[in-house]
Amino acid sequence: MNELHELAHLVEQGQTQRVATLTQQLLDKGVGSPTILNEGLIAGMTVVGEKMRGGEMYLPEVLQAASAMHASLNILKPHLIKAGAKPVSKILMGTVKGDMHDIGKNLVGIMLQGAGFEIVDLGLNVSPQKFIEAINTHGPSIVGMSAMLTTTMLNMKTTIEAIAAAGLRTKVKVIVGGAPVSQKFSDEIGADGYARDAVLAVDKVKQLLGLAA
Amino acid sequence: MFGKAPKPITCGFGLQIGVGQVYPELNFTLPTMMVDETNWPSVVSHYEEMGEMIRRAAKRLRLPGLMVEFELLPPMTERPEWGAQITSILHRHLKEAHEEFGLPCALRVTPTDIREITRPPELRSGEAWQVLCQSFTQCAAAGADVLSIESVGGKEVNDEAMMHGDVEGVMFALGILGPRDMAFLWKEIVATCASHKVLPGADSACGFANTAMQLSSQGMLPEVFAAVIRAASAVRSLVAYECGAVGPSKDCAYEGPVLKAITGSSIAMEGKSASCAHFSPVGNIAAAMCDLWSNESVQNIRLLSGSAPEAFLELLTYDCRLFNTATESGTERTYQKLLVDSDVHESPQALVLSPESTFRIASAIVKESSHYLKTVAAAREAVSIIRDALTQNTLRLSVRETQWLDRLSRSLDGLPQQEEDLIHRMVERYGHLFSPESYGL
To answer: Cβ–Cβ of A106/B35 closer than 8 Å?
Structure first.
């Protein structure tokens, strides 16, 4: 088996130690860090995403795979910087003001991390002002908002309006999700995208960023 | 058996629970709208409308009894006077229904556990804790007959552990953190209830076991894991009773039958008629031992028939007529068996809720001395129940589910006997998520 294929397979299996070891071996052999990232890690996590979508993997197994990928990324990071690799897109996430449900948002964050994105998680009960401050601080490509209650989902609209009033709306894409949220609601409040689950959220983010889903 | 509890209670306007009949417990919430200062008059009008609807529909349906639950939304807990105002409105409507046509009824009020607003949650002090206490006090004074809560102590660790499939972490959250918070919280709730002559109802492992149930329904967690978490979560909910809670248990506490088996207290349950709020694999079996039968929650929106809460009150009423007619005709065992048999072979989550399973889980719990050991014993018994069903060919699991059952079994066997050993290990693993002082650690 090609060693990059083997790396992808080990990522899929969540073999953290072996992934780290093989990553170092590949670097030692002179394989470029962007190649290892794309053809090993991202390739492995793409299969993981497909398997989760197809009901073939449970979340703990996905997290184990993500953990293996991060073990490799920690080794690759200085090499990627040296190689001038384009930094991964940042995604800012938070549960909107008044809402204390965050497991759905956390799941989306985990899946996005697994797909190679950098996540800045603002937690729960996040005010529009806090979203704005974080956009200015972190410069994300995407802002993800979550709400679980029919009485808090309208705070997504308030937040989008606040982001626009701060002159930042053109700098970020906004995606929304949560049990009471729908595509129709997303359209009505002026969000750029909606996904009904964590797996589809990854597709939506890739689509919004012009990456292959 | 449904409708009958060894320790029945009387609450509100002459509502007797657990003496033979099953009654509806109606719960409703607002449609999509903001709950803020500007909208408050509109919020109030929704609850007035629902209160009037209850009076009208209860009379039309000739209800023999009714529990209404008012589950506060977070802003209504954060502003205790708001929660108290709605409590007072619903209390007035129930009082009028009782005076007008003798409806035995009661109002359960459930403030939101707002202590998790900070991370790590500050559970025993701070503003959120103070406000939560005020909410309980003001709702009790405003006309609540039963106080309940869906508390969150341990959830910050349970969420993380559950997602990683970490049985040690889940046992730590459910068996050590959860019971410690419950003991602290319920001592306060029981004291508040005593000073206002209100019944301390019970708690729910909603944020724990129901989260697992929902993740499993989305294919994110194995069903066997959700079933084991359900069984183990009963110990945490049981602590409320150890502190003086008398029931009825919360509707979303699907662990209710285990609680009933141990405490003899009445339980509220929800299943097929709560699909307006969420789906579940336990639609019929959840009803097998209920004393109150609930719809969990429905928005006050218009349907073709009328308002959604009224439609669901009618649905619950017909469900309850079936329970009660079965009892009156002496066929309650047959009806209970149908409720059980129609679900029990379909899912391990249904299996652990059967009367036989809940008795086994309850028996395993009472044999142990500490909350930690009780939680582990309940989890092990759930694994054993599932294995027995597989052996008897009364339950089928996929290969992946079976592999997870083995993994759960191995993890449970590997747990330390001494809880101090687990605490030490878990502080290292999850110490960044929780404050030890919130749990008296």
So the answer is: no
Please state whether beta strands A142-146 and A90-95 pair in parallel, antiparallel, or not at all (unpaired). Answer: parallel
Question: Tokens in use for A88?
Answer: 């991964």
The CATH number for A53's domain is: 1.10.1240.10
How many domains are there within chain A?
2
Tokens 């409507």 correspond to B93
What digits encode the pLDDT tens for the residues B383-422? 999 999 999 999 999 999 999 999 999 999 999 999 999 9
Domain residue limits at A183: 90-208
ipTM for the predicted complex comes to 0.89
Contact check, Cβ <8 Å, A151/B34: yes
Contact check, Cβ <8 Å, A106/B31 = no
Q: What is the pLDDT of residues A163-194, one digit of tens each?
A: 999 999 999 999 999 989 999 999 999 999 99
Verdict on whether the full-model pTM lies above 0.80: yes
- Please tell me what DSSP assigns to residue B206: I
**Mutation choice for B interface testing from A103, A122, A196 by most B CBs within 10 A:** A103
Q: What is the mean pLDDT of residues B154-181?
A: 97
How many residues in total does chain A contain?
Answer: 213
What is the dihedral angle through the alpha carbons of A53, A61, B218, A202, rounded to the nearest 10 degrees? -50
Any B CB within 8 A of A188 CB? no
Which residues in chain A touch residue B208, judged by CB atoms under 8 angstroms apart? none
According to the model, what pLDDT value does residue A86 have?
74
- A with B: how many residue pairs have Cβ under 8 Å apart? 75
Q: Is residue A44 part of a domain?
A: yes
Residues A131 and A157 occupy one common structural domain: yes
